[in-house]
Design brief:
- The complex is a heterodimer of chains A (about 270) and B (about 300).
- Chain A contains ten helices and no strands.
- Chain A is an all-alpha fold.
- Chain A starts with 14 loop residues before the first helix and ends with a helix.
- Chain A has one domain (about 15-270).
- In chain A, α2 (about 30-60) packs across α5 and α6 runs antiparallel to α9 (about 220-235).
- In chain B, β1 and β2 (about 15-25) form a beta hairpin.
- With about 300 residues, chain B is α/β, with parallel strands linked by helices.
- Chain B has helices at about 40-45, 65-75, 90-100, 105-120, 135-145, 165-180, 190-200, 215-225, 240, 265-275, 290-300, and strands at about 1-10, 15-25, 30-35, 55-60, 75-80, 155, 185-190, 200-205, 210-215, 225-230, 250-255, 260-265, 280-285.
- Helix content of chain B is about 35%, strand content about 25%.
- In chain B, the strands form three sheets. Chain B has a six-stranded mixed sheet, with helices on both faces.
- Chain B folds into two domains: about 1-220, P-loop containing nucleotide triphosphate hydrolases (Rossmann fold), CATH 3.40.50; about 225-285, UreE, C-terminal domain (Alpha-Beta Plaits, 2-Layer Sandwich).
- Classes of the chains: A mainly alpha (about 270), B alpha/beta (about 300).
- The interface of A and B includes residues 2, 8, 26 and 270 of A.
Chain lengths: ~270, ~300
């Protein structure tokens, strides 16, 4: 062992990328599950809801669908955004609980030249890669089912990925505060993800809901991503100010998430 | 290498580390001995530049950790008590990812990982998942991981807690070798045999403060006699017998399970006890150890903690 040749170690400014590299290596161990879920989820949803429910909806609608398009086309952008948001959430909540509580890996990372902020950034960068992957796979399945057109790839995929990453950033900040993992994921799934999925105009236009619950959609990143997606996918009319509000809303969510997460990570790892 | 003056860490009203002074020199093995809750790990985390101090001065490798943490940590190796390994990755992958956090190149790490695996005697476990390793192997892997950046100082927090005797001896052997190569070691432990085996110099901590400092031999000379007679009469008789041993040894200590007689001539004093008509159930004459120092300084046994 040549302990005295220690010129090799240097603190990096690329710390976040090294953390992301580690996260991707860990994800690679789960590649089977990630791919199976990434493909299986859209295929099952499109077959059952898209085609099954769609048959019913299209047959009973005077316009032959919803919003002037077949039901399958109507729900496609919403499903894509849901997948992005769910994928992003998975890749920040599990590693964060693990890093702080289960195997305390973040504490070992913080003992190297990394800072807490770099660890937070790295987890998010890896989540972004996962979201992009999930979104591309999902989009390909949508396209195979005829739910989206070829030329939507360059607009729908980035918008859904953007929404997924912004949501992931917020959840990263939230999860960084969880000290007792008992039930956090189940609770988040039931009181956040599930209502978001059901009340964000995913399966029907938000306007169909009574005003009393419509606010769930307004604050939901999924609804904003879905609105943008429908506008981009089949040209659902969306005034410019609404486009701007949705983009800014998602962006704000992402920025707040990153700022708070960085701070919380560093504070918790040096306490 | 490390210099602390009045180093203090408080959590609200609780003072975990209370005005600790210590100095660690290049190439030495420095121990922090104390019972659980003495503030050893808290001190260790401050020395590792991962925990902010509340007050006092601290320089590590001539730098202040509160402003130059990442630079300092680039030259430290840390072996935490709870390993904190990624159990889903393989042995080699754990070393690789950890080396990457320091910004080390993959080509450098390829060679380095071979060396480290050999040092940790884990070469044949290279591609095993960490889940499948024994406790001793995991600890050796954690030490190897702490060495990936060729640190100047290796900080080990209770390195052999929870390991069986054989695994402890393997680990001690590795740490000896490391010391021979010139790495400065800082070790916390609540095992006095470990401190005696490994440390050139140590501090004894209790309730957040340092109660003694020196080499194991110095501490024993200063705070204990050369030999100790341990006699057991059964837990209900011990105090009664102890009261009648006046004049034997220089000092006596009554523990729940035995009486300790501090003396410079153990065999003679044991005979003197028997001569007074007390037949111990078991008896033992031994050299004084750091355990006796700790008992003397704090009035408590390390093993009772």
């Amino acid at each position: 062992m040549s302990i005295d040749s220690r010129a090799v170690a240097r603190p990096g400014h690329r710390g976040a990328l090294f953390v992301a590299e580690y996260r991707l290596r860990n994800m690679w161990k789960w590649r089977g599950a990630i791919i199976a879920f990434g493909l299986g989820n859209p295929v099952l949803y499109l077959a059952s809801v898209g085609l099954g429910v769609g048959l019913l909806v299209d047959a009973n609608s005077p316009t032959g669908g919803v919003d002037g398009v077949p039901y399958l086309v109507f729900i496609a952008p919403a499903l894509l955004a849901t997948a992005a948001i769910q994928g992003g959430m998975d890749e920040v909540t599990f590693p964060t609980l693990s890093g702080f509580i289960w195997n305390r890996l973040f504490f070992a990372m913080r003992a190297t030249s990394l800072t807490g902020g770099q660890i937070a950034d790295g987890v998010l960068v890896a989540a972004m890669v996962r979201v992009l992957f999930t979104t591309v796979v999902y989009w390909l399945v949508l396209w195979a089912f005829g739910a989206v057109a070829w030329d939507s790839a360059l607009s729908l995929i980035p918008v859904s990925t953007f929404a997924g990453v912004c949501w992931a950033a917020l959840m990263l900040a939230v999860t960084a505060n969880v000290t007792d993992d008992g039930g956090f994921l189940a609770l988040a799934g039931r009181v956040v993800i599930m209502p978001m999925f059901l009340f964000s105009g995913t399966f029907y236009p938000l306007a169909a809901l009574p005003l009393a619950v419509r606010w769930i959609g307004w604050i939901s990143p999924l609804w904003h991503a879905t609105e943008l997606g429908r506008w981009l996918s089949y040209g659902m009319p969306l005034p410019p100010w609404r486009i701007a509000v949705s983009v800014v809303y998602l962006l704000a969510m992402g920025i707040v998430g990153v700022v708070v997460a960085r701070r919380r990570f560093e504070a918790r790892l040096t306490r | 290498m490390i210099r602390a003056r009045r180093l203090t860490k408080t959590y609200g009203d609780f003072v975990a580390v209370d005005g600790v002074d210590l100095q660690v020199e290049r190439g030495e093995a420095f121990g922090i001995l104390g019972p659980n809750g003495a503030g050893k790990s808290t001190t260790m985390r401050m020395l590792g530049a991962t925990l902010k101090r509340t007050s006092g001065e601290l320089t590590i490798l001539d730098r202040d950790p509160s402003t130059q943490g990442p630079v300092i940590r680039a030259h430290l190796g840390v072996v935490p008590q709870d390993d904190a390994l990624d159990t889903e990755l393989t042995v080699a992958e754990n070393l690789l990812t950890y080396g990457r956090y320091f910004g080390l190149s993959r080509s450098y790490l390829r060679g380095r990982i071979d060396e480290l695996l050999e040092f940790a005697q884990l070469t044949d476990k290279r591609d095993a998942k960490v889940d499948a390793l024994s406790g001793g192997m995991k600890r050796r892997l954690t030490i190897a991981r702490g060495l990936v950046n060729e640190p100047s100082i290796l900080l080990l927090d209770e390195p052999t807690t929870g390991l069986d005797p054989q695994a402890r001896h393997i680990l001690w052997d590795r740490l000896f070798r490391l010391k021979e190569t010139g790495v400065t070691l800082v070790i916390t432990t609540h095992y006095m045999d470990e401190a005696e085996q490994l440390c050139d110099r140590l501090v004894v901590m209790d309730q957040g403060t340092i109660v003694a400092e020196g080499s194991p031999a110095d501490l024993i000379r200063a705070h204990s006699t050369r030999e100790v007679v341990e006699v057991r009469f059964g837990s209900d008789r011990n105090p009664e017998v102890a009261a009648q041993l006046d004049g034997i040894g220089t000092r006596r200590e009554v523990l729940p399970d035995r009486i300790l007689v501090y003396t410079d001539s153990g065999e003679e004093d044991l005979q003197a006890i028997v001569a007074r008509g007390f037949m111990p159930v078991t008896s033992l004459v031994r050299r004084a150890s750091l355990e006796d120092v700790f008992l003397r300084l704090t009035g408590r046994s390390l093993a009772d903690e």
